[in-house]
Write a structure and sequence with these properties.
Elements lengths: L8 E4 L5 H14 L8 H5 L3 H10 L1 E7 L2 E10 L8 E9 L5 H13 L4 E7 L3 H9 L3 E12 L2 E11 L8
Parallel strand pairs: 4-5
Antiparallel strand pairs: 1-2, 2-3, 3-4, 5-7, 6-7
Helix pairs in contact: 1-3
């Protein structure tokens, strides 16, 4: 895959694709432990049914190149009556250049078909991820100091929001 820009298909990851989803999620947690709330060792012990449930209970969008799942974005929708207008983005991970922007755009298209506001957290210092989110129109609205403890180091998260009115589908 290297540095070349890839042509990808973006669609919802189906429950039958749980093994591929599990493998990609574990790769993300293993290779970038400070960027996720879940940890590799715990998620590694989860049965396949756990990943099937994640796919069934959330909208997980995937990027596919040559039929291979190479990127994921999870969308969680609130069941709380007072928060049904909001979605939360989780588990963003993409292998290769040029896939992340299209994958996020596909996820936002799904989200804004159902809600008016999308929230995510990004690790302070993850410059590439924050640039991706800002490029899609997200703005910082707060932070969580010391939210993740990884290998003896505390990491902060930045909270970012995007309202449907501020979203430009053409970005």
């Amino acid at each position: 895959m290297g540095d070349r820009i890839m042509k990808a298909e973006f669609r919802r990851v189906g429950v039958a694709e749980a093994p591929a989803f599990r493998a990609l999620r574990l790769e993300a947690l293993r290779d970038y432990p400070a960027d996720f709330g879940s940890d590799y060792e715990t998620v590694l012990t989860r049965p396949l049914s756990f990943f099937v449930s994640q796919l069934a209970d959330n909208r997980v969008m995937g990027a596919y190149v040559g039929g291979e799942l190479v990127g994921i974005v999870g969308l969680q929708f609130s069941e709380n009556v007072k928060e049904r207008h909001r979605a939360y983005v989780w588990g963003v991970y993409a292998k290769g250049r040029g896939v992340a922007r299209g994958l996020l755009a596909a996820a936002l298209e799904v989200a804004f078909g159902l809600v008016s506001q999308v929230e995510l957290n990004v690790r302070v210092g993850n410059v590439a991820a924050e640039a991706l989110y800002r490029g899609a129109g997200f703005v910082a609205c707060g932070g969580i100091p010391g939210v993740h403890w990884v290998d003896g180091v505390l990491y902060d998260d930045r909270i970012m929001m995007l309202d449907r009115d501020g979203w430009d589908q053409n970005k």
